[in-house]
Design a protein that fits this description.
Layout (H helix, E strand, L loop, with lengths): L1 H35 L6 H18 L18 E8 L10 H6 L4 H10 L2 E5 L7 H10 L12 E8 L1 H18 L6 H26 L1 H14 L15 H23 L10 E6 L20 E6 L2
Helix pairs in contact: 1-2, 4-6
GO cellular component, one term: nucleus
Organism: Oryctes borbonicus
Protein name: K Homology domain containing protein
């Protein structure tokens, strides 16, 4: 019985392999016809061939079926949703969208995939750095390089229950759009932040070195060498760490506060200042303003100077 079952499994695998080979051959023929037909002269034929290519590609992809006409929310079966986001290279031909999407060492694209829980690939014309190799792979008519005949785009797909899958795709579209808006000073900004980051890393390494026990051993060895009779080299000034700089700043701040308090504690002597006394005299009738509504004028103020 076991031998019979193994034979059945082998027959099924052979049939699936033969079917896959037929689909690949059919896909090659479609790609060759698409390369011959012009989109401007035969737009309808070009569109039908493009739809047929995408249909065959979905059959060749292994995994859960793509989202169909009906969505089964009751059973919450995982579905695969995929979208293609067009990169606006025709509107902005000089801007490096691929560099902005990838970031340094592909960190931007990795972060997008982690945040949105979607798989993202940059496909289409211009997605490869080597143009000659890209043209060679395009002419090979291999099914896995069929995307090179399409426009530059970002392919986003995810596998999840229907509601969650659509939520992931929506979030991915929002996040990807930020990278498809051209900013011509973004490269300078990234270089600036990368230089700042490298400086901070160096400072942290120096701080760890200043606090490490190896530094004390190295200092003792260098002190012995410097104090020797044959060493005439000028000693290097030690690199100030962050803690030593903070201690210097604290000492300076304390010294300024002490000097400020000393100035406020100085006694006021009578011979240093002149005291002014304010005396009020009653208003005279001569200067009364009869036209005023209140019948009284402002009091005359007289200051007398006293010396001690």
């Amino acid at each position: 019985m076991t031998g019979f079952r193994e034979k059945e499994v082998e027959d099924v695998n052979d049939k699936s392999a033969q079917q896959e080979e037929k689909l690949n051959e059919y896909l090659r023929q479609l790609l060759s016809e698409k390369a011959v037909i012009s989109e401007k002269q035969c737009p309808f034929a070009f569109r039908f061939i493009d739809e047929e290519i995408s249909r065959i590609q979905q059959k060749l992809i292994k995994g859960p079926p793509r989202d169909t006409r009906y969505i089964d929310v009751y059973h919450e079966k995982p579905v695969k949703i995929s979208v293609k986001v067009l990169v606006p290279v025709k509107e902005h031909p000089r801007f490096n969208f691929i560099g902005k999407l990838l970031g340094q060492k592909g960190n931007n694209l990795k972060q997008l995939q982690e945040e949105t829980m979607c798989y993202m690939n940059i496909c289409g014309r211009g997605s490869m750095r080597d143009r000659e190799k890209e043209e060679e792979l395009r002419q090979s008519l291999e099914p896995k390089y069929a995307h090179l005949t399409e426009d530059l785009h970002v392919e986003i797909h995810t596998i999840a229950p229907p509601a969650e899958a659509h939520t992931r795709i929506a979030q991915a579209l929002i996040q990807v759009r930020k990278y498809l808006v051209p900013e011509y000073n973004v490269e300078q900004t990234e270089r600036f932040f990368q230089s700042k980051k490298s400086i901070l890393v160096k400072l942290e390494e120096e701080e760890d070195w200043m606090d490490s026990p190896k530094r004390s051993m190295y200092k003792e060895e260098t002190d012995v060498v410097r104090k020797g009779p044959l060493s005439r080299a000028r000693p290097r000034s030690p690199i100030t760490s962050k803690s030593s700089v903070m201690s210097i700043l604290n000492k300076a701040r304390i010294a300024m506060e002490e000097s400020h308090n000393i100035e406020h504690r100085r006694t006021v002597h009578s011979h240093d200042y002149e005291e002014y006394e304010e005396n009020y005299r009653p208003p005279s009738k001569k200067f009364m303003d009869r036209s005023s509504p209140y019948g009284k004028s402002a009091p005359d103020v007289c200051y007398t100077k006293r010396k001690y």
